[in-house]
Amino acid sequence: METNVTHSNEEIKYLIALSQQFKYRPSRLRKILEFYSSPQEAWDCLEENKRPNLLELAQEELEFIDKHHIQVDYFKDAHYPYRLKECPDAPILLYSKGKQLEINQGKFVSIVGTRNATDRGKENTRRLVLDLAASIPDVTIISGLAYGIDIAAHKAALEASIPTIIVTAHGLDRIYPAIHRPVAISALENGGIVTEYCSKTEPEPQNFIARNRIIAGLADAVVVVESKEKGGSLITAHMALDYNRDIFAFPGRIHDEQSKGCNALIRKQYASLIESADDLIQAMKWEVKNKPIQTEIENLFDALDNKEQTILQILRTQEDGIHINELVMEIKMPYAEIASTLMMLEFKEWVKSLPGGMYRAIR
After folding, report:
1. pLDDT confidence of residue 193
2. How far apart are the two ends of the chain, measured CA to CA in Å?
C-alpha cells in the first residue's frame, strides 16, 4: 500500500538498519516489511543473526542525512519512483539529492555504453540527447557517471538544459570517478544524484552491477550506444528486458569491438535498432512538442558558404573521416584554402580534426 506519511527519524533508522542487514536481498526484505506493521516490529521480530552495531551505524547515517539534506524515499511511499517500484528487486530505500529532482514526472531515458567509447559513440550520444531535448522538453536523461558513454550523456543533458540523473554505486559522501565531480555538481542544479547505498560505501565491483538495475528500472526506455560483447551495458539491457522496458541500440560495423554488444542485442531482437532520436520517439509513440533540431541543423547548413558546404558534403560520406590531402585532390582547391575552411568548420562545430591530418563530420 502506498502512503503519503512523513516518516519519523526513528522509523528511518530501523529501515536503514534493515536495508543494511538485507543489503543483497531486497526482495526478501520487501516481503518482511509487507508482513509487519512497522520497521521496528520487523527488526524486533527478525529471527536471523543481526549484524553487530547496525542500529548505531544507522543512527550515524541518519545524522549524515540530516546534515546534508538528503532525501530518503521508502518503497511504500507514494513519492518513491513508480517505475522502479514495479521491479521486484527494487531498493527498499533510495537516497537522493538535487534541487530539481522530479523523479516521477516526464519521460525518462537511460543511456549506457562502454567506458572506452569511440569519438563516433560520444557524438551519437550527444546528438541523441540534444535532439531528444529539442523534441521532448520533459525528457530526463539517466546514466551512471562512468567514463565514455555515461559521462557523454550527462554532459549533453546539461548542455541541453534538461534534467539528468546520476545513479551511483556508492554513498552520497563521494563522487566516483572524482574527475567527473564538476558534472555531478552541475547535475544537482537540474536533476540530481540517486543511490541505494549509505555513506562510507566504497564503489566496489558488485555495487556497479546492482546499481545497473536502478538505471534500468527508472527508465521508460534504455539506449545502448556502444558496447563490447560483454560488459555492464549488456547487463543493464538484460535487466531492462526483465523489467519489460523498451530497449534500443545503435548499430555498428561488424568488426568494431565497441559495436559487437549492440549488434548482438539487435540481432537477437532484444533491442530495436535506432540511428537517431526520431527513431526512438516514433518507437515510443511520444508526442513531439518542439521543432526537431535536425531542421535547425539543415537551416544552419544552408547558412554555410559554398566552399564549406562542398567540403562538409564530402566529409559526411566518409564515416571514418578523410585526409586533407584527399580533399585537395577531390575538390581541386589549394591546400591552404581547404585548411582554413576546415579550421572554420571545426570552429563552428561541424567537423572534428583527428590525428594524422584526418577530418570527420560530426553533424
Report:
1. 98
2. 49
Please give the Cα distance from 23 to 214 (Å, whole number): 15
> Which residue positions in the chain have pLDDT lower than 50?
1, 294-295
Q: Is 161 part of any domain? A: yes
pLDDT at residue 231, rounded to an integer: 86
Q: Which domain holds residue 93?
A: 9-97
- Where is the domain boundary, 97, 123, 144? 97
Cβ burial 257-296 (10 Å sphere, 16+ → b, else e): ebbbbbbbbbeeebbbbbebbbebbeebebeeeeebbbee
What does each C-alpha distance from 26 to 30, 128, 231, 271 come to in angstroms? 6, 34, 24, 28
Q: Enter the DSSP assignment of 257.
A: G
142 and 263 housed in the same domain: yes
CA–CA gap between residue 74 and residue 17 (Å, rounded): 13
Query: For residue 246, what pLDDT is reported?
Result: 97
CATH at 344: 1.10.10.10
Q: What is the pLDDT of residue 290?
A: 61
DSSP bridge pairs for 361: 351
Domain check: are 146 and 287 in the same one? yes
User: Are 166 and 144 a contacting pair, CB within 8 Å?
Assistant: yes
The pLDDT, as a whole number, for residue 295 is 47
How far is the C-alpha of 287 from the C-alpha of 289, rounded, in Å?
6
Q: How far is CA 108 from CA 74, 111, 235, in A?
A: 20, 10, 19
User: Dihedral (C-alpha) 352, 354, 358, 359: value to the nearest 10 degrees?
Assistant: -10
Looking at the structure, tell me whether residues 45 and 125 fall in a common domain. no
pTM (2 decimals)? 0.83
Q: Could you tell me whether strands 322-323 and 358-361 are parallel, antiparallel, or unpaired per DSSP bridges?
A: antiparallel
* Residue at a domain's end among 97, 116, 134: 97
Does residue 192 sit in the same domain as residue 308? no
Q: Return the pLDDT at 296.
A: 52
- How buried is 220 (Cβ within 10 angstroms: 0-12 exposed, 13-18 middle, 19+ buried)? middle
Residue whose cell numbers read 567506458: 115
